[in-house]
Amino acid sequence: MTTETGAGKIQWQQQNLVPPDHGLPVLGEFDAVVVGSGAAGVAAAETLARKGHSVLIVERYGFSGGNAVAGLSGTICGMYMSSERHSNRPEQAVFGFAERFREVMQAAGGITTAQRYGRTWTHCHDPLAWREAADRFLSLDAIKVLYHCMVQGVVMEDDIVRGVVIDSKAGRAVALGKIIVDASGDADVAFRAGMDYTSGQDGTVQNPTMIFRLSDVDLDRFLANWGSDTICSAEVTQAIIDANASGSYDLPRAKIWIFPTPRPGQLLVNATRLVGRDGRELYPADPEDLTEAELVGRHQVREYARFLRDKIPGCEQSFVNDTGVQAGIRQSRSIVGIDRLTNDDVVGRRKRPDGIVRSPWPIELHSGEKPKLEWLDDDYYEVPYGALIPEVGENLIIAGRCLSAEHEALASCRVTAQCFGYGHAAGIAAAEAITSGTSIRNLQGEHIRELLNGDGARLDG
Fold first, then answer.
1. Which string of DSSP letters, residue by residue, matches 142-169?
2. Which helix (H) or strand (E) holds 192?
3. Cα four-point dihedral sign 52, 56, 59, 61
4. How confident is the chain (461 residues) per 10-residue block, as mean pLDDT?
């Protein structure tokens, strides 16, 4: 298991278990408790409720969205194939819950049409539209939402997860569930339960980022200069390198992404590279490192915004509308599962009978001045069901970027469309386990795939 602490840092407690006779107030007993209401959590909760099961959602913020909203990632990546031969039209590969969510935002005018992203396509959305779409999906009578709450511990009986300990301004209480869905993004439930996990490559994870929105942009002039691809040109990259070398700017990453948003005169900018002031890589599940990422990130936002105003046509009168509520986290903990998505699975475009999510997204490895992109042109791979199931522990399923995956594989499978898919799969599996009385780890991935296809996932066509 990878340690979370560097030299000289406090040894934070990992495991925090309470027995069934814990003596704490009980909020209730639910069919499922979903921890986190980002893309995966919303999909899992809505799927379970639609299948007739009672659900409690526990969310740290006062809104749903996770990295898509709090981290302001702002795009639904991973829905379309990449291609050099057919780059003028998007070819959709991922459907199911991701498509349902996109349609709701489209109806509300809160998402763009598909935009070019190198050899593939993505959508840019408005964070308020995302929150309101999530509110709509979570409005089912069977769902109880608790915002402003964090999981502080886990109720365990032997190796069975019975519930979670929730901490809030009101104090502590317990929520019990037949199934617990860990959609926290950082494997918070598995971590509190003392389960094994990995962190990136030998403890080094992909850089976090601080995304921002730039308003009062002359979009016509901007697009005439920037072009149709949201990834910056070689000329812009060189301009960033030159500006940084001049000593007048602090611009640590030279390859940047800029997306027109659904709002007039507004751009979403993904440019920053967050490392420690001493140059070390930051680990976002450590509060000291995450705090430094926030501070460094807001400084870099000011620098990139100044560069855009000074150097990019159409941005002369622009200003920073907002930054993420928190730094955008690409990677922290990955569970050790009964199966694992490997780097070879991704580059080999492996299809599996127990595949529960498709991904055509490239390996997009953020480290250094220029991220590594390895395209999967005209193809996709599939993520196995077992990557959502911890190696040890009953009644727990993982949904989201903390699934069991190797470092470079996670750099492809962590994006929003796939997280919607993991939540959809986790919800289908949890509903099936509850209804059939079968342990969630004993369900067959092939059967879950069939159920997903029956629920609109279109994994077989």
1. TEEEE-S-EEEEEEEETTEEEEEEEEET
2. helix 188-192
3. positive
4. 54 91 97 98 98 98 97 97 85 98 98 96 98 98 98 97 98 98 98 96 92 98 97 97 96 96 98 93 94 97 98 98 96 97 97 98 78 90 98 97 97 97 98 98 98 98 77
| CA distance linking residue 167 with residue 337, whole number of Å | 27
For the entire predicted model, the pTM comes to 0.96
- pLDDT tens digits, 83-136: 988 667 899 999 999 999 999 999 999 999 999 999 999 999 999 999 999 999
Pairing mode, if any, of strands 372-374 and 363-365?
Answer: antiparallel
Q: What Rg do the C-alpha atoms of the chain give, in angstroms?
A: 21
What are the residue ranges of CATH 3.50.50.60 in the chain?
17-111+119-203+332-454
Both tokens of residue 11? 């040894």
- For residue 387 the two structure tokens come to 């990557």
**SS3 category, 63:** coil
Identify the three-state secondary structure at position 104. helix
Nearest C-alpha neighbor of 405 from the set 395, 394, 424, 419: 419
Secondary structure (3-state) at 23? coil
Residues 6 or more apart whose CB falls under 8 angstroms from that of 248 comprise none
Alpha-carbon distances of 218 from 109, 134, 226, 377, rounded to whole Å:
20, 31, 12, 34
In angstroms, the CA 108 to CA 87 distance is 28
If we measure between CA atoms, which residue out of 180, 190, 460, 205 comes closest to residue 338?
190
* Closest listed residue to residue 447, CA positions, set 338, 357, 356, 383: 356
Q: What is the CATH number of domain 17-111+119-203+332-454?
A: 3.50.50.60
| 359/408 Cα distance (integer angstroms) | 14
CA-based nearest residue to 333, from 202, 191, 192, 207: 191
Q: Give the model's pLDDT for residue 2.
A: 42
CB of 453 closer than 8 Å to CB of 459: yes
* Residues pairing with 213 in the sheet: 268, 322
